[in-house]
Amino acid sequence: MHKPTLLLSLFFIQILGSSLPGPDMLVVIRNSLFYGKKHGILTALGTTTVMTTYCCIAVFFISTAHNSHLMLFKLISCIGAVYLIKLSYNCLRSATKFQLSSEHKDKKDQPTILKSYFSGFLTNLSNPKAIIFFISILPLFIQQANTTMMRFSIVAVIGFATLTWFFLVAL
Residue 159 pLDDT more than 50? Predict the structure, then answer.
């Protein structure tokens, strides 16, 4: 597969992964609806920071562990894939109702810009879906990325796709 096609595929897979309902999406939506687009965008930046960091860790782990511990690597990938399928199934089955209240509209309760950023950061830091997603999906792309530049490109595409999705959610 050509490098542009590989990166474009990764972009759309990351958009799909980011669009799965989870705590990261809920905190971006909440902060955007209750406190405004600026707070939603800053929450999205916090979320993207963690996703990009997780991606860096996963790329490093996959690059180093792939050749030396192939069986362990395949086991982790299979466990991650099963977890993502279970998570998708649970998301489709559950029909949660999201209710808005006007009690958060008070200006004195509005968080600072830094708190909005860290709400996205901390929410995604405690979200195992992200690291499991990367360990399950990235091996397909890392095997074809044989240069350091290509690995950096993978991290950049993940960061850009995540930021794009959550930026759109915040608007």
Answer: yes
